[in-house]
Write a structure and sequence with these properties.
There is one protein chain. The protein has eleven helices and 15 strands. Helix 4 runs parallel beside helix 5. The strands form three sheets. The protein has a seven-stranded mixed β-sheet. Strands 3-2-1-4-5-6 form a six-stranded parallel β-sheet, sandwiched between helices. Strands 13-14 form a two-stranded antiparallel ribbon. Helix 4 links the parallel strand 4 and strand 5. The protein folds into two domains: 116 residues, Rossmann fold (3-Layer(aba) Sandwich); 183 residues, Dihydrodipicolinate Reductase, domain 2 (2-Layer Sandwich). By secondary structure, it is of the alpha/beta class. Belongs to the Gfo/Idh/MocA family. InterPro entries: Gfo/Idh/MocA-like_OxRdtase_N, GFO_IDH_MocA-like_dom, Myo_inos_IolG, NAD(P)-bd_dom_sf. Keywords: Oxidoreductase. This is Myo-inositol 2-dehydrogenase.
Length: 342
């Protein structure tokens, strides 16, 4: 098996998840290099993961002659530039969502990616690699649910991270609630239905931290979307789940319905105590989607070896971001928005 040498940029919580998978859990992959502007993260890469090359400059890292691929887990605003530079250097690219923050820049990046078909590009829509979501997708494709009529999605982060987000929002651009969080749900809607979103209407409220109003950010948002075949999709996105990390998807069709993750169970344990009957819940996304993150990186490695492209593409990232921005436009204008494509 040919060894695939990987460099990673960004070693925050999600970056560490990918870094550990590449370093320890993907046969035939070696984490050769790491890039971060945080020295403690580079120390972690050297001391805990055995990385031999560390950089504070991404450009210097991709100039290394020892790399075959890069994993991009940096802040979203850097993604398009870093994808473009890696492609110019002839490196395969795995990039976390979103593909970028500006539609114009994303479109240029998609053109660059599609001009290099010999290089693998994969976007980090990990739910497509979750066993439960894949099981549901097979049911939809077999026609078990009939024709889809409604898709409902919840994506709510635990409240434990809300205070730190408020501080972040005052100094940085997250892209907005829908681009930052609902991008996964938007992708799932497109994936399950095979259709594009044509029209959206969104609402929002800041209850626990009304100061988010001042920086144009949302604590909780909800949206209704109409797909090109008139299928309806409902989204709820938030940052204030008291019980933990809550992701739930419901599909309703003419022959039946299903729910994925109706309760965000941590495991199969049920606790009986003074609080009643209690089910422990997942507290963060690396826990809930641990296997999905592993599976998507295995797919990235397989695509490189087999010289093929993954099922999730750069255009999926473009379309997801296009819808997320239409949702934000609806929030800003308080109007129903048609999703335009050119």
């Amino acid at each position: 098996m040919v060894d695939i040498k990987v460099g990673i940029v960004g070693l925050g919580r999600l970056g560490k998840t990918h870094a550990n998978n590449v370093a320890s859990n993907i046969p035939g992959m070696t984490l050769t290099a790491a890039c971060s502007v945080v020295e403690s993260e580079l120390d972690y890469a050297r001391e805990q993961l055995g990385v031999t090359e560390t950089y504070i400059s991404y450009e210097e890292m991709v100039n290394s002659p020892n790399l075959d691929a890069v994993v991009i887990v940096s802040p979203s605003g850097f993604h398009t530039e870093q994808i473009n530079l890696a492609m110019e250097k002839g490196l395969h690219v795995f990039c976390e969502k979103p593909i970028g923050l500006e539609i114009k820049e994303i479109k240029k990046t998609v053109e660059i990616i599609e001009s290099r078909p010999e290089l693998v590009f994969q976007l980090g829509f990990m739910r497509r690699y979750d066993e439960s979501y894949q099981y549901a997708k097979e049911m939809v494709e077999r026609g078990d649910l009939g024709e889809l009529t409604v898709i409902r999605c919840y994506g709510i982060d635990p409240c434990s991270g809300l205070e730190s987000f408020v501080k972040f929002a005052g100094a940085s651009n997250s892209g907005g609630l829908f681009a930052d969080m609902s991008i996964h749900d938007i992708d799932i809607v497109r994936w399950f239905s095979g259709k594009e979103v044509n029209r959206v209407w969104a609402l929002g409220k800041n209850a626990a931290y009304p100061e988010l109003d001042e920086v144009g950010e949302l604590e909780t948002g909800a949206a209704m979307m109409q797909l090109e075949d008139k299928t309806m999709a409902l989204l709820v996105a938030g940052r204030n789940a008291i019980h933990g990390y809550h992701v739930e998807t419901e599909l309703i069709g003419t022959k039946g319905m299903l729910r994925i993750g109706a309760q965000p169970d941590k495991n199969l344990v049920t606790v009986f105590n003074e609080n009643g009957v209690v089910r422990p819940t997942s507290q963060h996304f690396p826990e809930r989607f641990r296997d999905a993150f592993l599976n998507e990186m295995k797919e990235f490695a397989s695509c490189i070896r087999e010289k093929r492209q993954p099922g999730v593409s750069a255009r999926d990232g473009l379309e997801g971001t296009r819808v997320a921005y239409a949702l934000q436009q609806s929030i800003d204008t308080k109007e129903l928005i048609d999703v335009t494509r050119d």
